[in-house]
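Continued from yesterday's entry.
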Amino acid sequence: MSLPRTLLRPLRRLYTTARRDREFKNARQILLGGEATRPLRLKGGLVPPDLTDREARLVEQISLVSDPADTMYRPGAAVSYLCAGVSAVRGIDASLAAAGKTISKGAILDFPCGYGRVLRFLRVMFPDATIVGSELPGAGLDFCRSAFSIQTIPSSVDLKTLTFPRKFDLMFCGSLFTHIDERMAVDLLGFFHRHLAEGGVCIFTTHGPHVIDVMNNKVLEFNLSSEGKERLVRDYQEKGYGFADYVGQSGYGISLVSQSHVAELAHRVGTWERVFLLDSGWHGLQDIHAFAAR
């Protein structure tokens, strides 16, 4: 006689949670133990080579709590998940150094924070700062608030009018420009410029020409139609900004933007300067840009 489904469901959840927790603990040991020092390619991103002493301490200290709804995690990819955080740490450190900026207290924004892939690192990187996570209202925002003891502010798809009650000394935006069209990208830059404190640094990532090679070599499969992919690359090459919707979606997909075009868009919204740029700097895939308000 088989167990009723009402009993099987909680058992499956317990098993899945235990397996995920065990995988994240093993991933931490892989990074700390040096087994990931060779350039393994996972989900299109490179596992960071040797951790610095500081990075190792952060990996030891971060919370490994996770939520089953986090789509940034896939079974078997916990190492890649943590490496995205380590890669963000490197980009943030390099950007702050280039800007001559030191942060001890102040306010830091992770936008969008998702389920805390980078946020968990920010929490231990800047223990005396006010850490704020922003995301569209829902389970992710609730999870980050309770799991990482941070402040949260609901976001909106209307970035042009989105207003927060404070400004920030540091902003990190991983993989949002990569999914929106040029009009929304300008609105997003305007939001960042309005909320950047004097002397603050805004760091964000974009897809550059490296992603074309990734798509052509099928290292990563993007859910684009053949027509969408052709338009994406053509507009990028002709205009500096290409965008194509995911199949079955509208206004959300994949973008490509040249580094020079990023600077042009940034200067449309106000006076700030790019202080750091790194090709394929985040997770071996996305370009890192840092702009500072002088």
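--- second protein ---
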Amino acid sequence: MLYGMKSALLLLGTFCAATAIASAQDQLTPDPGILAEKHEYYAKLREVFAEVYRSNVVLQVVLLPSFEPEEIAGIRETDAGFEAFVAKPSSIIWETYSIYEAETEEQRRADEQGKDFPLDPNSGLVEMKRNNPSDFRKITIHIDARPIPTQLKTRIEHVWQRMLLGARHPVNPPNGTDGETFHFSMWIYGRGFVSAQTWSPDRGKARALTDLALALPEYARGAGDEKQLIKLLKPLER
């Protein structure tokens, strides 16, 4: 009897854990939005990507992969209708931010010790500066854009909104280092600017949304087509 009860509790615990994981993979996690984050790195992201926000962005995703340049993709309104777009910097913004942080710290230490900056001309900082610009103003942005039919834009807008409004804080958030963080956002009538994120989901509707988010840049660059976007929409519209 006791053994049977323990087995039942074990099965129940396994089921609950699996349900929690599945639920987390079906939902995004609320966040304050890439435009509102106070961390200095996000401020530099907004500064470098300022060109993107000079147009009427309907929806967007900020893609933050490990070891690759950041990107912003989405759909924006134009005089002729709507277009998918993707903006990519000429180098990794995080690397330039890392140089900025390292220089700030080394300058502080030099000031404390009454020595000249840099303290060590052969430090790793020199190597970082050899491979990446140390000035954010030297990072340029390339934007690709391609018209998207209004009906398809509306379908994408609906699933984007549904996933954002369904965002929940997970009981067991995913853990990891390398991977890709996706910050989704859009302006929603009656709610204002709504934002949520996910990190490298491998299943569920969160994975379906990230697949769609990764297909938008390809479409904007001319490598994808409408059929591909429609195919990726279907799991999110069920």
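DSSP finds seven helices and seven strands in the chain. The beta strands are 29-30, 56-65, 71-78, 81-89, 141-147, 180-188, 192-199. Will compare against the first tomorrow.
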